[in-house]
Amino acid sequence: MKKSTTTAPPKTLSPAAASWWKRLHAEFDLTDEGAAFLLETALRAFDRMNQAAELVDKHGVAIADRYNQLKANPAVAAERDARAAMLGAFKALNLDILPPLKPGRPGGR
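Now predict its structure.
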């Protein structure tokens, strides 16, 4: 895969997502184009998830329709879908975030 020449975060990312971008680039080798694309996808989904969460916090999980009947807030589904997209992109990056498990049996009594 071709190496990316820049590690600066895309201008479309929020300050929180840009901070993640910088931190992950500092900790992991994400210089190829595929990794940069997956990271941008994950962080754009992170931003979308936060936008939807703000709408849910503001309007609640249920909203009234034109007949004044309660229905599910569409932002709930948008938040769920964005979270799934974010987690999928991070999983595809295959980052070794957790420490390795110790060999052997787990501690007992």
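Residues 15-93 form one domain.
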